[in-house]
Specification:
7-stranded mixed sheet; 29% strand; Nuclear Transport Factor 2, Chain: A; 181 residues; single chain; alpha+beta; elongated
Length: 181
């Protein structure tokens, strides 16, 4: 038997979904980061591993506040599995962009593993997705915005990739607490 009841795990996961919708919809990212323990680990396969809630907060704000990430407003869960023995939740959700003016849906799938720590907090999250799918989705979304008259974001609004930063003589900022390999 696991450390937590299925009911507690279900309620904690329901809360993650509620807070995710509210935090992304209103841009209150602190609310989402506060779901994690102070000593949490967050693994993001594209950006790296972040150790500690404040390192996650710093990176998350860096990654999610520039355009077009600010338009990724929804994360509907397609399916989930609760492992009561371990206190884990594995799920597939969609990173969904805001509606571009023509009622079309623009989203890409991601898979996630979360480890529960009790009292509504999570000690671990690992996100797995294909960054090329995300980029292609964002491009289709921008094209839909252009067709509907909402326009395309300006180049200054788009975050630079690591390669672009290196070509410009810079480097991607290293958040405090990033795990070294």
């Amino acid at each position: 038997m696991g450390k937590w009841s299925r009911q507690e795990l279900e309620e904690a996961f329901d809360n993650v979904q509620r807070v995710t919708l509210e935090a992304f919809g209103k841009g209150n990212l602190d609310q989402w980061v506060d779901l994690f323990t102070e000593d949490c680990t967050y693994v993001e396969h594209y950006y790296g591993t972040f150790c500690g809630r404040e390192a996650v907060r710093k990176w998350f704000k860096l990654a999610m506040t520039p355009y077009p990430a600010t338009e990724m407003k929804y994360a509907p869960v397609e399916w989930y599995i609760i492992d009561e023995e371990r206190g884990w939740v594995v799920f597939q959700a969609w990173s969904r962009m805001s509606e571009p003016g023509d009622l079309s849906i623009h989203q890409w799938p991601y898979f996630c593993l979360m480890k529960y720590a009790g009292h509504g907090k999570w000690s671990y999250e690992e996100d797995m997705y294909n960054p090329m799918e995300a980029a292609e989705c964002n491009e289709r979304w921008e094209q839909a915005k252009e067709r509907t008259g909402f326009g395309r974001g300006t180049p200054e609004e788009f975050p630079k990739t690591q390669k672009q930063l290196q070509q410009d003589g810079g480097a991607w900022p290293e958040p405090t607490g990033r795990a070294k390999r």
